[in-house]
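[09:14] KT: can someone run the structure on this one? pasting the chain below
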Amino acid sequence: MASYHLTVKAGARGKAAAHAAYIVREGKYSGRDRYEDLEATARGNMPEWAAHNAAYFWQAADEYERANGTAYREIEVALPRELTPAERLELVQEFIGQELGEKHAYQFAIHTPKAALEKDGQPHAHIMYSERIRDGIARDPDHYFKRYNAKNPEKGGAKKASGGKLESERKEDLLGLRERWAALQNKHLEKHGHNDRVDHRSLKAQGSDREPEKHLGAIGVSRLNAQDISALLERRAAEGGLERSQKEVSIIDLSGDIKRAKEERANQPQQETAILTRAAQALERFKAEQETCAMAAQALEKFKAEQERKAQREKEQTQSTPDKGHHR
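[09:31] RB: done, structure tokens below
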């Protein structure tokens, strides 16, 4: 089932070149099994001096941006597993064209690491871009990142897109970005024949009473036993099926079997109830297993403490007992 994720991060001066190397798997991130997940990468809108090597741009940002300035911004998005690599690349490129156009220098990378729990691909994209707006004025690296000069633009650096914006305006911009990303994903899912859809809103805003799943991470997953994992995956599958069934709209095809269509529509509530029941049962099993693990851990800690106390008592008794061999 397609999932939604979008975050926007700001990168401080001195961090841009290293982060760019990380997302495109270059330098110390090249040729290591841990980072063998690069699916696609590209750059665009670079000034002439960095047109053939984006690393020059990020190195210049680190060197010439003001000390407390932002060297780059990054949009990180989850990509639908349902799409092929070529289709995911098409989606990312359209998103960049829609949001950055020809205004901002950028570099992106698509990664497909294996998910810790389900072992399937976990495709996502890192989109690094400069807030500096391209205005057609040729600037050298040390000039490009200077403070903008409104009266004489050619004497100052390229203007920053976020300059002068209030916190409320930036928040509104982020909400708009999240909504547009959801709409674009759904457009591509529909275009390629998939029924799943994503929603940028919170579960509460969607009217769902489902509790958000706690992020376990690779370490958390490694601590789960086979039964825990099975219960969690069953819960995900059941909840995913329920959400899909709730979003589907039943339509009676007047050119087909009307009686069958009506029967299917009448059976839909029963199907949804069955899915919800399975989800609840899976969740209860998962909670029971977690409680059992917690009780076992407490018992183990209690046993260890008792063993330590016993060892301490024996040590104290040994030390307090005189050695009979030294008595006259």
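[09:33] KT: thanks! The CA atoms of residues 162 and 173 lie 10 Å apart.
[09:34] RB: yep, looked fine to me
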